[in-house]
């Protein structure tokens, strides 16, 4: 898939390629399902005879063709704020172009998860209600509005929001903490909001010493 536009970063080009391949895989799965339903008996396709009398294997099940569930990007800012901002912008562009408010209603939406090496995990929460398991090893967590002001209500944090409007120039929720008494947090937002938390003590990329 050609991505000649130099207005895109390398990361944005990679995301576009992955989403293109994922969309094609979805359609292939649908086509396989239609073949199985139309040609099979009790959901199983009829085997085709071979010249030597052996039976051909059935076509692959839709479950045999994996569809991308998330894009996980491992990155390091190297101290550059512009790299941080452009990665956040990529998450927001993905939400605008492919999210649940896009033309196909998020049919081919694939979330992007940013793993900053030995530091944090970050992802965008779209409009709606989200329940996320608490990470009590995290030193901090944050909610930051992206693109436009958002109305947010939360539970499960040390400092919660109740129908508060977040925007640059007023309130953003940084340096928050998970409530140690709660097993999960609940976040309700009317617009996309960036959720990030510390993984320095639970970094999945760290190999424990034996």
UniProtKB/TrEMBL annotation:
**Feature: compositional bias, Low complexity:** 35-45
A GO biological process of this protein is:
thiamine metabolic process
InterPro entries linked: Thi_PPkinase, Thiamin_PyroPKinase_B1-bd, TPK_B1-bd_sf, TPK_catalytic_sf
Query: Which residues are in the Thiamin pyrophosphokinase thiamin-binding domain?
Result: 128-193
Spell out the residue ranges making up region: Disordered.
35-63
Compositional bias annotation for Pro residues = 46-61
Indicate what this protein is called per its UniProt record.
Answer: Thiamin pyrophosphokinase thiamin-binding domain-containing protein
Lineage of the species this protein comes from: Eukaryota, Metazoa, Ecdysozoa, Arthropoda, Chelicerata
């Amino acid at each position: 898939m050609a991505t000649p536009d130099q207005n895109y970063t390398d990361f944005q080009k990679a995301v576009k390629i992955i989403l293109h391949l994922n969309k094609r895989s979805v359609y292939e799965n649908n086509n396989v399902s239609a073949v199985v339903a139309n040609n099979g008996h009790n959901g199983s396709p009829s085997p085709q005879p071979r010249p030597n009398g052996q039976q051909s294997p059935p076509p692959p099940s839709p479950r045999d063709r994996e569809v991308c569930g998330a894009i996980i990007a491992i990155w390091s800012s190297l101290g550059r704020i512009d790299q941080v901002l452009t990665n956040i912008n990529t998450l927001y562009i993905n939400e605008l172009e492919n999210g649940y408010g896009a033309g196909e209603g998020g049919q081919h939406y694939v979330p992007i998860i940013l793993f900053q090496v030995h530091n944090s995990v970050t992802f965008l929460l779209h409009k709606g209600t989200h329940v996320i398991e608490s990470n009590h090893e995290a030193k901090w967590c944050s909610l930051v509005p992206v693109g436009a002001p958002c109305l947010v209500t939360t539970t499960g944090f040390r400092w919660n929001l109740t129908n508060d409007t977040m925007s640059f120039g007023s309130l953003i929720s940084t340096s928050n903490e998970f409530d140690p008494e709660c097993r999960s947090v609940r976040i309700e937002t009317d617009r996309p909001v960036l959720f990030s938390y510390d993984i320095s003590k639970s970094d999945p990329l760290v190999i424990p010493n034996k």
